Amino acid sequence: MAGLWKGTSVTELSVRVIERTDEADAVFALVLAAADGGDLPSWTPGAHIDVAVGESGVRQYSLCGDPAERDRWRIAILHEPTGRGGSAYLHRTALPGSTLSVSLPRNNFELGSAPEYTFVAGGIGITPILPMIAAADRAGARWTLHYGARTKAHMAFADALLGRYPAVNLVPQDVSGLLPIADILAASPGAAVYCCGPEPLLAAVEAEGQRQGMTMRTERFVPRAVDRTGPDAAFEIQLAQSGRTLRIAADRSIVDVLESAGVPVITSCREGTCGSCETPVLDGEIDHRDSLLTPEERDSGKTMMLCVSRAHSEVLVLDL
Ligand code: FES
């Protein structure tokens, strides 16, 4: 497994599958413990880990257990037999007693402090929301959860949620249609909105939230479509720490060029969704193409994902 995380400072952990359960149609959950016993690294609601999935590389899965349980992590996986191969690999191999190579938790979807939250989840997107709800509830905040999926049978953890929080709003599409996003957001105009799910849901929540002037956080595990106005152009990067200048050809990514030049860079997903390659930018205009920075973070121009983002200016100065 070594070397799946290219770069120099990603810590790989070996974890053992100690429990595997079916949580919904095509969704199974794994409880993971440190392979050598003892506590696992701490994490906060919204965090995910990278999991090595054989020839298919690595995939990101949200931690969906209780952060207070330091001897175990829980993840849940949507088994997509015709997907890119990651979930099929885990479905086949992640059996109780087997070991997996994973990264330390990383959180690109941090739960901020707020008096009121609106949580919106679609399908397997419920996973990062589960520990958020528990944290919000513990903090005494007002919150609502609106959870949609194709059918009730496709809703992982639905019964556990209902048992613990009877007021959660489950919206199986075959019975109740799609989540009524405009109504949901309008019902709590002062709430901080956290949403995870398939792209159409995320796009709808972002568009409606923007229209209603709300604070939103979304998380994607597949890249969002990028609006391209023309063919990619070449540009230069200057590495402020080493003083080197490198040319990024139109058909190459910054990560490719850095690796070819022997500059260490941490990567995982290489498609702009995980945050591993986030790097401070000191000067230049960034062409953001990732799927995780907020509009405010993009506008600040201070950071970028080197695996997918490019430059609008001739030169970018990176803090490398
Ligand atoms: S490697 Fe995942 S965002 Fe760049």
From TrEMBL:
One Pfam family this sequence matches: Fer2
InterPro entries the record matches: 2Fe-2S_ferredoxin-like_sf, 2Fe-2S_ferredoxin-type, 2Fe2S_fd_BS, Beta-grasp_dom_sf, FAD-bd_FR_type, FNR_nucleotide-bd, MRET, Riboflavin_synthase-like_b-brl
Residue stretches making up the FAD-binding FR-type domain: 10-112
Cofactor names: FAD
Residue span, 2Fe-2S ferredoxin-type domain: 235-320
Any one Gene Ontology molecular-function term assigned to this protein's record: metal ion binding
Superkingdom as given in the UniProt entry: Bacteria
PROSITE patterns: 2FE2S_FER_1, 2FE2S_FER_2, FAD_FR
Keywords: 2Fe-2S, Flavoprotein, Iron, Iron-sulfur, Metal-binding, Oxidoreductase
Iron keyword on record: yes
PANTHER family (UniProt xref): CARNITINE MONOOXYGENASE REDUCTASE SUBUNIT (PTHR47354:SF1), NADH OXIDOREDUCTASE HCR (PTHR47354)
Protein name: Ferredoxin-NADP reductase
The organism of origin for this protein: Nocardia neocaledoniensis
